Amino acid sequence: EAAVLRRLTEAGVPGADPGEWYGLREWSTTEPLEDLDADGARVRVSPSTIEKIEKSPLSWFVDQFAPAPPSDAQATGTIVHAALEHLGDRDEVTVNDFVAEVLPQLEALPLPADWMREQRERQVRTMLTRLCQYLESSRAKGRRFVAAEAPFRLEFGPVVLSGVIDRVERDTDGALYVVDLKTSKYPVSKQDAAVSAQLECYQLAIHEGAIEGVESAPSAGAALLYVRSATQTPTLRTQDPLGSERAEEVRARVLAAAERMSDAAFADFDDIDENGIAGARRYRIQVVPGVSA
């Protein structure tokens, strides 16, 4: 067999040279992605990636350096987010207003069959209906629109924490309430939402007065707003307001995530759960052991 491989390699057959085989090459480097002890070291952290680096460093690494192409579901989610951004500041907005806003984008989606397009339009109309239900409920509670797609940036230690908040509202006491729109089908548990790193970071931005164009105020809490779940009304997963003591805990959590993101190696679970956070094949292929005779 070795002789056959040698002849194939000499003939220039791709993949015949064992030196090209996956997993057999020497590591290109063992240096960390970022030396946190170096002068001027900076690690950029996005709130939405913190839980992934905590639960599956390998998945985080693959997403950063070999991201998957956008899916149809993500394209649909982007359209719904844009509708909230453009029309969510109105005192009154109907489902038909939202549908008129998104229809050109929906028609531009590259769907191969008319029935698929009709199904997608029904799905989006359902999400927009629940979005309207949320806005009506928010107004009934006396909350006022403050900002949409609101950027923020915080720096502490080597960390640059930045992101964009879907929606910021102000309650009757003047405190700020954060809403993160979700178009995924399955809501997280109430327990997970209570400690959601993404919501914690958004509330930290409120605590620090770091949201661009938004007057500083205490936090009234935060929520994940699910508009695609199987219920007849939107599903909210809430998080309590962030105080000074918890703000320090959030900073420590972000710093710990930054340290992992700057590491030299990104190990993962020995036993991959196919239904878990690292269950996709593009993650699992990285930890499949070598095949031996």
Structure description:
The chain has 293 residues and is α/β, with parallel strands linked by helices. The protein has 10 helices and 6 strands, in the order αβαααααβββααββαα. Strands 1, 2, 3, 4, 5 and 6 form a 6-stranded mixed β-sheet that branches. α5 (95-107) runs antiparallel to α6 (114-140) and α8 (197-207) crosses α9. The chain is globular.
Describe the structure using short key phrases.
6 strands; single chain; globular; 40% helix; alpha/beta; six-stranded mixed beta sheet; 10 helices; 293 residues
Itemize the secondary structure elements and their pairings.
Elements: H1 2-10, E1 43-45, H2 50-55, H3 57-65, H4 72-87, H5 95-107, H6 114-140, E2 144-156, E3 159-170, E4 176-182, H7 190-194, H8 197-207, E5 219-226, E6 235-239, H9 244-261, H10 281-284
Parallel strand pairs: 1-3, 4-5
Antiparallel strand pairs: 2-3, 3-4, 5-6
Helix pairs in contact: 4-5, 5-6, 8-9
- Which structural category do the helix and sheet elements fall into? alpha/beta
Shape, please?
Answer: globular
Strand fraction equals 15-25%
The low-confidence runs, each spanning 5 or more residues with pLDDT under 50, are: none
Percent of residues in helices comes to 40-55%
Total of helices = 10
Mean pLDDT: 90
CA-CA gap between termini: 14 Å
Write down how many β-strands occur, each being a DSSP E stretch of 2 or more residues: 6
* Main sheet attributes: strand count, strand direction, barrel closure: 6 strands, mixed
What string, H for helix and E for strand, traces the elements in order? Answer: HEHHHHHEEEHHEEHH
Q: Round the Cα radius of gyration to an integer and report it.
A: 23 Å
